[in-house]
Each structure stands twice: as C-alpha cells, then as structure tokens.
Amino acid sequence: MFCACANSFGDEPNTNVCPVCMGMPGALPTLNKFAIEQTILSGMLLGCSTPPISKWDRKSYFYPDMPKNFQTSQFDLPLCLGGEVPLYENCFPTDAKNAAKISKSSIALTRIHLEEDVGKSTHVAGATLLDFNRAGTPLMEIVSEPDITTAEEAYAYIKSLQQILIVGGISDADMEKGQLRCDVNISLRPHTQSHYGAKIELKNLNSISAVRRAIQFEILRQAEELDLGIEQIQSTRRWDDDAGESYLMRTKEDAHDYRYFTCPDLVPLHTAAIIEQVKQRIPELPHQKLQRYQQQLELNPAEAALLSADVSLSAMFESMLGFEKESPKKLASWLVNTLVGYCKENELELGTLALDAKQLSQVFGAIQQGSISSSQSREVLAAWLQKPESNIEDLLKALGFGKADDSQLEGWVETVVTANSDKVNEVLGGNEKLLNWLTGQVMKLAAGKTNPKLATEALRKRIGL
Ligand SMILES: [Zn+2]
C-alpha cells in the first residue's frame, strides 16, 4: 500500500519486504494509486459516495505480526461512505432459496476504507514463525450496517459482494487465498427492545459456509445464555469449524485504545480527479446484466440468472453473440445445457477451453442449420477438442454428419405421410398440433440430418398446407 514490494500469494516467507513495510526508522510511505482507484471503483459499484478529501490515520497497537506498531488506516475521512450490497437470488444458500430467512433485497454499508495489511504468524510447538510478506499490502475494509438479521442473509451478502468484486475486476475474492476475509459481529436483543445487546465478534471464518454455520451457532449460544439470565459482555471469540463451536479469546477489558491520529507522513488526498478517471471503468453488474438478458434478449429467467452470475460464462455468451446474433435464446440454452454440461462431465474449464468463441459458434451454427442435433453437438465438441486444428466442415464430414439434401428429406416425409394418412387428414382438418408430431417422426428418420424447421416446411409442402 505504501511501498513497491510485490503482492503475491505463496512466495517464500519474508522475501517481499523492504524498509518501508518493515517500519524501519526514517522510512517514508508513498501512496499506491492503483489501490486507491480500486477502492473508489468498489465504492461506485456499491453506490457509495466519496468525500472530496480523504486522509490517512495511524491506528496504534502492538501486535507481533505488525512491525511498525501502528497500522496506517483511515479514521474519519475514508474513501467511501454509505452504499449497499444487493442480495442476488443466485447467491442465496441452495437450501434456503425459498425460505423466509432472507427478507431483504440489499444490505446497507457504513463505509469502505483502505489500510495496510499485517503479516502472518504461524504457531508451531514452542515457537511462533513470522512472515511479513503480507505486511503493508493494501487491505480494503468494507463495513456493513447492523442490517443483517439471519445467517442466510450474511451468506447471501458475502456471495453477492464477492460476485460484484470479481465482475468489477477489483479482486479474485478467493477466500481460500485470503483475498476475501470476514469478521462477524453478532448482537442479540429481546423483540421488545430497540437497542442491540453486547457485541460479540467472531474470528477465523475461512469460508462462506463457515460464516453461516458460525452465526447459526452463535445466535443459539447467546440466546440460551440470555434465557438463563447470563449477561453478555463485549468480546471476541474464535470459531472452530471442525468442532462447530466458538471459544472465548478476549473480552472488552483487553480492548485496545487505538489513539488514532492523522498520519504525518501522508498528505490528504483530493479525490475528484480519480473519481473522473475511474468512472470510465464501471462495468455492467450481474443484476444489470440479468435485467438486460431477460428484457432485451428475452432469455428465460433461470438461464439468464446462470449466465449473468458467472463471469467466464457470460463473457463467452457475449462473444458468441457477436457471431450468432439471430437466436440469443437458443444460444443461451445451448451454452447453459450442452456446453456447460459437457465441460462439467469432462472436468474442463470454459475459460481455458481449446476452442474459442468463433469455433463454438460454428458448432452451434451447425445445429441451427440442421446439420446436427443438440445432442450430436457433444460428439462434435469432443472430436474438435481432440483436433483443435481441424475445421468444422471436415469434422462434420468425418463424423458422418451433414445436412440431408432435398431428395433425402422428401423421402423421409413421404414415408411418414404414407404411414400416417389418418393423422395427415386430421392435420388437414385443422389439428395443427399433430403437425408437430409428424415433424417428430421425420426427425426420427433423419437421425439428426435435418432440423425441425426444415422438416415442418417439407411436410407442409407435401400435404398442401
Ligand atoms: Zn515493502
């Protein structure tokens, strides 16, 4: 945040350090412009406001993995104020999708500030190992209002936030890599009381589902104690996910007096110019994309939700639309059902597939033209992934696929019409629904070498509709 050390995960301990982040006497900090831009952009994505002037403050406390004995943070003039995180439906826990446990559409934010991270300590038998690589790396802290009322809302909040940060290009927000971390504060109150009870903080939450489990446990634990007349005191507890329990770490008596004061080494920042610059980078957010997919492209809600929620899937959809503008609905459905299904079964990642959007559009195009059926497109995908250098025409030929010629199609239509003269008469009598059934019969005979549209046309021509 204030030096030029590399910020990378998993390097040898204490290799990304310098006098500034190690807090050597006389070393002077320099602001990281990109970190500030990323924070202001995050604020814009979440509807925050940015004060015209923002400044840095020293938060004094001693901690073994913080070499300076103070953390450079932001106290009264953070980069972002207010805002909210919309709760996306596809981010609800799968077992709580329709439950009444999520009653809100968004969670209000208090502020977002930027500070430096601390190092990492690992406790081994008889010793503590310190790695300062992370010390001094930028840490964006997003603080929400006490607006979350259930464990499920907390789950949806983090998942939705994660999606927005990924789409915005702010962070990969991977909890396993420590790119997204979370502290949870839980306070209970009787239904009849307006102010909250003592604030209990939970630490060591390593996954979004652990956050949910920890909150569920902690609400029950506090409620049980309160019912027994045991008063809660402000404290910090450690969550043990394996045991499914929380343990007391410290109470308010040990709380720090941080003695915040304005950092004498860093001048306050005028934000106007950065705001103007960052505005150009605001991407379409998942909920805006969802709305466009449903309203403009008329995709069905489930497919639109899947496409808008997944960054690499929606990127693929958008680039394929460049080649296949005519039928976004069919394209969406092929992507979500066939292509994603194929990738899952074969443990392939869409983002690193050997075929690009143009080639995948050609596979989809072959379905549209009636050369192959949707299920046959899997065979084409498999063959093409084996031989990415070949072209679609050669592949279709090699696999024995191809559009039937007119005389072949007429032959199948003739067979179906002759065998079903009673049904043909019904169609002629006005039962148009049976025409679909007859089309199905032709499709069976054609074994994928035509498409329903061509088959129906040929049938209509044959029976004089
Ligand atoms: Zn450094």
Write the layout of secondary structure elements.
Elements: H1 33-45, E1 53-54, E2 57-60, E3 70-73, E4 80-81, E5 84-86, E6 106-116, E7 120-124, E8 127-131, E9 138-144, H2 151-167, E10 184-186, E11 200-203, H3 208-227, E12 235-240, E13 245-251, E14 261-262, E15 269-270, H4 272-279, H5 286-295, H6 301-309, H7 311-323, H8 328-345, H9 357-368, H10 376-386, H11 392-398, H12 406-419, H13 421-428, H14 433-446, H15 452-463
Helix pairs in contact: 1-4, 2-3, 5-6, 6-7, 7-8, 7-9, 12-14, 12-15, 13-14, 14-15
Bound molecules: zinc ion.
Can you summarize this structure?
The protein is built from 15 helices and 15 strands. The chain has helices at 33-45, 151-167, 208-227, 272-279, 286-295, 301-309, 311-323, 328-345, 357-368, 376-386, 392-398, 406-419, 421-428, 433-446, 452-463; strands at residues 53-54, 57-60, 70-73, 80-81, 84-86, 106-116, 120-124, 127-131, 138-144, 184-186, 200-203, 235-240, 245-251, 261-262, 269-270.
N/C terminus separation: 74 Å
Q: From the helix content, strand content and strand pairing, which structural class follows?
A: alpha+beta
Radius of gyration, whole Å: 30 Å
The proportion of residues in beta strands is 5-15%
Listing every helix as H and every strand as E from the N terminus to the C terminus, the arrangement reads HEEEEEEEEEHEEHEEEEHHHHHHHHHHHH
Please count the helical segments.
15
pLDDT average, as an integer? 90
Helix content: 40-55%
Bound molecule types: zinc ion
